């Protein structure tokens, strides 16, 4: 038969493919509990992050090993794992009191050591300090982790439009003059993706829209190219408006914030490099990575989160550069920290070696 347009499949924004032994987890007829899990995952994601993610398209894939699954974003694999229906996964969060008999593996979402155990061992494993989850939860947790990590990619143009419609119903005045009067839909989309790329929730749409309304016209007037407000500057101002929420994410409550900072000499060298060439030269980059790696390892070993506080001008480039190597760390500008939060220096990056 001739090829037709029907042969062209549009890829789904978010997909889950399962091997044949996992079909029972996603089959309505077999009361597949993973389906209920995924429903509540989307709901929780919408509440936490601030927009409704695309539906998860689930299909079986007979090319996968029977117990394997893979997670796809726009048709590209971003994660895969193995799950064993009928058994439980005992994950070792560190400091467990005994070794368990079973099939050793790694927890697919966070890479922790784990073991597949028989149902009869479940209570014993919990008493020994393991986190014990069923086969459906293993897949759901992995999917959830990937959705949060790739929130920016899940926020397509349709989601932006739906979000604006939703806010418009709740607060018409807020949205009325926003798109396209103050900012184009493309620029608004780019701004939201910029926040989501660093896992900043966009729940507080009121603050985001008020910041755009207040600053976009002035920034657009300063832009000689006539292409609207500078996206980087608008993103920085929006992050400042969301500063309290950003800090809260890393340091809940009003606890003191144990952070890393840059040694003043290194700060000067970086600022100079950025103003002259707009890039970090390779030797300096290598030193910086080594120093950050040491500090991050020390903080994580002590059970602390790794957050680096830098001057506003350095934040965008350091965030781009460091996030590639250390996806788990936060990079905050000093302007984003509310006056009433107490900072404590946990580490200084760039002692003698970085100068």
Protein model, in words:
- The chain is of the alpha/beta class.
- It folds into 3 domains: about 10-150, Glutaredoxin (3-Layer(aba) Sandwich); about 155-240, FHIPEP family, domain 3 (Helicase, Ruva Protein, domain 3); about 255-350, FHIPEP family, domain 4 (Rossmann fold, 3-Layer(aba) Sandwich), CATH 3.40.50.12790.
- Helices cover about 45% and strands about 15% of the residues.
- It contains 14 helices and 12 strands.
- It has a 4-stranded mixed β-sheet with strand order 2-1-3-4, with helices on one face.
- It starts with 13 loop residues before the first strand and ends in a 6-residue tail after the last strand.
Q: Which architecture of the largest domain does the CATH hierarchy give at level 2?
A: 3-Layer(aba) Sandwich
Using only C-alpha atoms, the radius of gyration works out to 23 Å
The total of helices stands at: 14
**What topology, given as strand order, has the largest sheet?**
2-1-3-4
Could you name the key traits of this structure?
12 strands, 355 residues, 3 domains, 14 helices, Glutaredoxin, alpha/beta
Question: What's a quick, concise take on this entry?
Answer:
By secondary structure, the protein is an alpha/beta fold. The protein has helices spanning 33-49, 122-127, 135-149, 151-154, 157-170, 172-176, 178-182, 185-197, 205-222, 231-241, 243-250, 264-276, 282-301, 315-325, and strands at 14-18, 57-60, 68-73, 76-82, 88-91, 103-106, 113-117, 131-134, 257-262, 307-310, 330-333, 343-349.
């Amino acid at each position: 038969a001739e090829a037709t347009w029907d042969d062209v499949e549009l890829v789904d924004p978010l997909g889950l493919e399962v091997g044949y032994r996992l079909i029972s987890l996603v089959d309505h007829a077999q009361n597949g509990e993973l389906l209920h899990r995924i429903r509540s995952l989307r709901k929780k994601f919408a509440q936490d992050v601030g927009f409704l993610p695309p539906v998860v398209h689930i299909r079986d894939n007979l090319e996968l090993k029977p117990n394997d699954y893979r997670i796809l974003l726009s048709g590209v694999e971003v994660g895969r794992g193995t799950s064993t229906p009928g058994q439980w996964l005992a994950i070792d969060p560190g400091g467990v009191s005994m070794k368990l008999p079973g099939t050793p593996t790694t927890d697919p979402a966070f890479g922790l050591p784990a073991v597949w155990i028989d149902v009869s061992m479940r209570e014993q494993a919990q008493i020994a300090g393991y986190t014990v989850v069923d086969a459906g939860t293993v897949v759901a947790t992995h999917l959830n982790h990937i959705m949060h990590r790739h929130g920016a990619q899940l926020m397509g143009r349709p989601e932006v439009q739906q979000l604006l419609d939703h806010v418009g119903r709740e607060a018409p005045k807020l949205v009325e003059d926003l798109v396209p009067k103050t900012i184009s839909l493309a620029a608004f989309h780019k701004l939201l993706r910029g926040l989501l790329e660093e896992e900043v929730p966009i729940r507080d749409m009121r603050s985001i829209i008020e910041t755009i309304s207040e600053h976009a016209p002035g920034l657009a007037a300063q832009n000689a190219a006539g292409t609207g407000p500078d996206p980087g500057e608008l993103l920085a101002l929006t992050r400042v408006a969301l500063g309290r929420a950003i800090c809260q994410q890393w340091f809940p409550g009003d606890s003191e914030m144990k952070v890393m900072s840059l040694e003043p000499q290194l700060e000067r060298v970086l600022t100079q490099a950025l103003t002259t060439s707009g890039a970090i030269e390779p030797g300096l980059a290598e030193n910086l990575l080594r120093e950050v790696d040491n500090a991050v390892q020390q903080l994580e070993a002590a059970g602390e989160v790794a957050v680096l506080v830098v001057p506003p001008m350095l934040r965008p480039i350091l965030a781009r550069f460091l996030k590639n190597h250390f996806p788990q760390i936060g990079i905050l500008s000093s302007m984003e920290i509310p006056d009433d939060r107490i900072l404590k220096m946990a580490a200084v990056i760039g002692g003698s070696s970085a100068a």
